[in-house]
Amino acid sequence: MTRQKICEVNPAVRDQLAPGVRDKSGIGVHYVDAFIKPLNTTLPDGSRIICKRKGLKVTLTIGDRKGEGIMRRLDVSKDPVVMLEAALREAARAAGVELSFDGNEIVLARP
């Protein structure tokens, strides 16, 4: 498997989870949207990565492969950070790749 860094996680994204931020969604949509924005990029080999959220569904497209993950509040966790990572991993598996969250980096592993 080849591993390559997609992007770094902006530490300021956690500010979207602060108690002062009004979010009635229960899944931290402001946090989710801010977190996935840097994932939309082009890899050195020319493959485009596109990540979108619509409601509870997260769609991850890498080149011509596409996968979807669901933000599961009851099954996974009430914590938006844990919920989003699980949804992104699910979407990556459906696209035939793996995502890992190594500290402040998001790393893509392809067969």
Describe the largest sheet: 4 strands, antiparallel
Question: Strand-residue fraction?
Answer: 35-45%
Distance N to C terminus = 4 Å
Q: What is the overall shape?
A: globular
Mean pLDDT: 91
What's the total count of β strands? 7
Rg on CA atoms, Å? 14 Å
Structural category? alpha+beta
Strands side by side in the biggest sheet: 2-3-4-5
Total number of helices: 2
The residue ranges in which pLDDT falls below 50 over 5 or more consecutive positions are none
- Helicity level, as a percent range? 10-25%
SSE string, helices as H and strands as E: EHEEEEHEE
What does this structure look like?
The chain has 2 helices and 7 strands. With 111 residues, the protein is of the alpha+beta class. The strands form 2 sheets. Strands 2-3-4-5 form a 4-stranded antiparallel sheet. Strands 1-7-6 form a 3-stranded antiparallel sheet. A hairpin with a 2-residue loop joins strand 4 (57-62) and strand 5. The longest helix is centred in the last third of the chain and has 15 residues, at 80-94. The protein is globular.
Which labels suit this protein?
111 residues; alpha+beta; 3-stranded antiparallel β-sheet; 2 helices; 7 strands; 35% strand
Question: Quick summary of this structure?
Answer:
This protein is an alpha+beta fold and 111 residues long. 21% of the residues lie in helices and 35% in strands.
